Amino acid sequence: MTKIGLIVPTLNAGGLWKTWLAAFDRQTRKPDCRLVIDSSSSDDTAVLARSHGFDVHVIAKADFNHGGTRQFGIGLLPEAEIIVFLTQDALLAGPDAIERLLEAFADERVGAAYGRQLPHRDSRPIGAHARLFNYPPQSQVRSFDDRRRLGIKTAFISNSFAAYRRSALFEVGGFPTDTVMNEDTFVAGKMLLSGWKIAYRADAQVHHSHDYSYADEFKRYFDIGVFHARTPWLQQTFGKAAGEGRRYVLSELRYLVKNAPWLIPSALLRTGLKWLGFKMGSSLHRKLPLFLNRRLSLHRAYWRRALP
Fold this sequence. Notes:
The chain is of the alpha/beta class. The protein has helices at about 15-25, 45-50, 65-75, 95-100, 125-135, 145-150, 165-170, 185-195, 215-230, 230-240, 240-260, 265-285, 290-295; strands spanning about 5-10, 35-40, 55-60, 80-85, 90, 110-120, 140, 160-165, 195-205. Strands 1, 2, 3, 4, 5, 6, 7, 8 and 9 form a nine-stranded mixed beta sheet that branches. About 45% of the residues are buried. The mean pLDDT is about 95.
């Protein structure tokens, strides 16, 4: 039987962690090996994880890296043929969520799969729309040929709830250890280029959403701009991110007209901040001093070891 591993990076998971662990305990298919990589939490995150049967490996907070930490975790689970990733704020929505996600690997050409992210029940309209836009109710399997139809969306995936075939992951070199974010998209793009498929399972669901502040919207898109500037092959291969951005803005406005029209000014301001952040990240970050890049970034730890 295929060995399944689970890796969950954590840092001060807080009150939601007990709910997360309870949802995991109800799963019909539990991974054979379960690893929490904890960035030196000051709360009881690690203690609770151990009490629910997880192995816990503690690292320094400054050593966390989106790609490097996950790749490190894979090395700690050498027998796992498929590795599931979850984040501490992605609540499994049903008892069969992991089981449904793993069904994608019945197709031997599927190198990675990800599940549907539903808004948290207390999510605000702007945060809720982001999930409804990016995670539709229809499942799909994408290959390299779909880039002509879907553009950059072909390589979309999220490590908040995803799984990878170990052989496919190692064939493309694993997760990058020097990226500010989007290590999942990087690997998905490499897999598609190598002939693997990416599966989206709409019936494998978690509750996961964010209500970003204005400042965090800017900082997040600054980091996205940095990512694309340092991985130009993605947009060269699959298409520019700008087209997808326009489609998102129009969808958001239609959603808010129907559900929360009073938030349209806020959404327009956020769109401007996202555009500015992306442009600054993609065009200017190499010209800016390190301290300013760190100040403008949502992931400040990255800049301690960022490449020139």
